[in-house]
Write a structure and sequence with these properties.
40% of the residues lie in helices and 18% in strands. By secondary structure, the protein is α/β, with parallel strands linked by helices. Helix 3 packs parallel to helix 4. The termini are far apart. The chain binds S-adenosylmethionine (SAM).
C-alpha cells in the first residue's frame, strides 16, 4: 500500500471538514455560478480552435471538483445546448462531493458522474481519454504539482485540452505572512481547527495597517467565504503560489503548450502601460516575457487561469478572417453588455483594484446587440447595413476587429466556426 504523507492527509482532512468553496445546494434554484475556465464557448475557442462539433459527445473531467462549481457549470451548459457526453467529477473528499452531487440533483442534471479518489490515480479510476479537463485550485495543494499535471495529461485526448488555475504569488502578498504567523500561533495538529479559525480571525482583526495583508487592499477572499474560505486562505496545510514563469515551466514539464491566460489583457502590458518609451521596449518582448512583466507591473494577479493543449497539438484560437465566424459573448447577454458599451469611446475595465480605459469604435454597441451566438459576421454586417447603407464589409470588419480585440482581451467575447 502507498504511504500517505502527513501533509497529504491534512489536505484530505481539511476538505472533509471544510468543503470548499462553501455552497448550499438549494441555491441552485436561484442562480448558476459561471466563471473561467470551463465556460463552454471559451473552451471551444481556446482548446478546439472554435471548431468543436457540439453534436458529438464531449467528455469532461473535473479533477479536484470540490463542491461542484465547474462540474455543474459544464453539465448545465451541455444540457442546455444539447451537447451529448458526460462530466466526471473527481475528488478525494466525500463531503465536498456530496454537496456537488446534491447540487446536481437540485438541477436535475443527468450527465454528471461522481468518482471518488485522487487525481494521481486518474489513469486507473477515470482513464478517459478526456476531451477537456478542468483542474482549478488543486495542483498548488499537491506535494508534487508537476506529477499531478502529468497524471492528467496522461488521460487527455490527443486533441483535447485543459483549463487550469493556480494561485498567483504577487497578488496574494500578505496571505503567506498570515500563514507563517499562524504556524507559530496555532500549529496544525496541536489545536482544534475551530480554535485555529478563531485565532486567525483575531489575528486579522489585530493587524496594523503596515502589515502586508492590510496593504494588499484587493485581497478580499476571506470576507465572503465563511469558515471554509478562511481555512483555505490562511490555514491550508499546503499552498504553493505561482509566478508566471512557474506556470510556463510547469506547462513545459508536462509536455503541454500554453494557449492563453485568462483574462488575456492582464498579461499584455501593451494594453495598460501608457509611457511610450516603456511601450517601445515592451513591444520587443515575446508573449511570455510580456506576461512576466505584466505580473510584476500590476502586482494584483491573485490567480493564474489558463488553457493548455498537448505540445504536439498545433490548434490555435480562431480569427475573424472568415465571414462565417460566429462571435459569442462570455457569460453575458447582448442586451446586458450593450448597456455598458458607448457608441464609440472608452469603456472602463476594473480588475482587483486596477482600472484602465479601453477605446471601442462607434459601431460597437450595434455589433454587440447582434451577438446572440447564432449570427455570423456576414449576417451581423447585413443587419447593420439595413440602417447604414454605406457600410461595406471592409469598414464593418475594421470596427468589428477593434471591438473584438478589446472584448476578447477582457474575456467577454470568443469565436466559433460552425461545422460544415
Ligand atoms: C480549493 S478546492 C477547489 C475546488 C474546485 N476545483 C473549485 O475550483 O471550486 C480543492 C479541491 O481539490 C481536492 N483535491 C486536493 N487534492 C486532490 C487530489 N490529489 N485528488 C483529487 N482531489 C484533490 C480537494 O479535496 C478539494 O475539493
Amino acid at each position: 500500500m502507498k504511504a500517505i504523507n502527513i501533509d497529504d492527509q491534512m489536505v484530505v482532512n481539511q476538505y472533509e471538514n471544510y468543503p470548499y468553496p462553501e455552497r448550499k445546494p438549494g441555491d441552485e434554484k436561484k442562480r448558476l455560478i459561471t466563471g473561467s475556465p470551463s465556460n463552454l464557448a471559451e473552451v471551444n475557442h481556446y482548446v478546439f480552435g472554435g471548431r468543436r462539433d457540439l453534436s458529438k459527445p464531449l467528455s469532461v473531467l473535473v479533477a479536484g471538483g470540490g463542491t461542484g462549481d465547474a462540474a455543474i457549470l459544464m453539465a448545465q451548459q451541455m444540457t442546455d445546448l444539447g451537447v451529448p457526453g458526460e462530466v466526471v467529477h473527481l475528488d478525494q473528499s466525500v463531503s465536498s462531493q456530496t454537496i456537488a452531487e446534491e447540487r446536481a440533483k437540485v438541477r436535475g442534471l443527468e450527465n454528471i458522474r461522481f468518482v471518488k479518489g485522487s487525481l494521481l490515480d486518474v489513469s486507473k479510476i477515470a482513464p478517459g481519454p478526456w476531451d477537456y479537463i478542468d483542474c482549478c485550485g488543486v495542483l498548488h495543494h499537491l506535494h508534487d504539482p508537476n506529477a499531478g499535471l502529468s497524471s492528467l495529461t496522461e488521460v487527455l485526448a490527443t486533441d483535447g485540452g485543459l483549463g487550469l488555475m493556480v494561485y498567483g504569488e504577487l497578488g496574494r502578498i500578505g496571505v503567506y505572512h498570515v500563514q507563517e504567523m499562524m504556524r507559530k500561533l496555532a500549529p496544525t495538529g496541536q489545536i482544534d481547527d475551530s480554535e485555529r479559525i478563531s485565532i486567525v480571525k483575531r489575528l486579522i482583526a489585530s493587524l496594523p495597517s503596515t502589515a502586508w495583508f492590510n496593504r494588499n487592499t484587493h485581497m478580499e477572499d476571506h470576507k465572503n467565504g465563511g469558515d471554509a474560505g478562511i481555512f483555505d486562505l490562511f490555514l491550508h496545510a499546503r499552498d504553493k503560489p505561482y509566478r508566471v514563469n512557474d506556470v510556463v515551466e510547469m506547462v513545459k514539464n508536462a509536455n503541454l503548450r500554453l494557449v492563453s491566460f485568462i483574462e488575456p489583457y492582464r498579461y499584455d502590458p501593451l494594453l495598460f502601460v501608457r509611457d511610450p518609451k516603456l511601450k517601445k521596449v515592451i513591444s520587443e518582448l515575446d508573449n511570455i516575457e510580456r506576461a512576466i512583466f505584466a505580473e510584476a507591473y500590476l502586482g494584483n494577479l491573485k490567480k493564474h487561469v489558463f488553457y493548455a493543449v498537448n505540445k504536439t497539438n498545433s490548434i490555435n484560437p480562431p480569427t475573424t478572417t472568415s465571414a462565417n465566424v460566429i462571435p459569442l459573448l462570455v457569460n453575458q447577454k447582448p442586451e446586458e453588455i450593450a448597456k455598458q458599451i458607448p457608441a464609440g469611446g472608452n469603456i472602463s475595465v476594473v480588475s482587483d483594484g486596477h482600472k484602465i480605459d479601453m477605446y471601442v469604435p462607434s459601431l460597437s454597441k450595434a455589433i454587440v446587440t447582434l451577438c446572440d451566438g447564432k449570427k455570423d459576421l456576414n449576417t451581423i454586417h447585413k443587419v447593420i447595413r439595413e440602417k447604414r447603407k454605406d457600410l461595406d464589409y471592409e469598414e464593418f470588419m475594421d470596427h468589428f476587429n477593434r471591438f473584438y480585440a478589446v472584448m476578447n482581451s477582457i474575456n467577454r467575447m470568443v469565436l466559433r466556426i460552425p461545422s460544415m
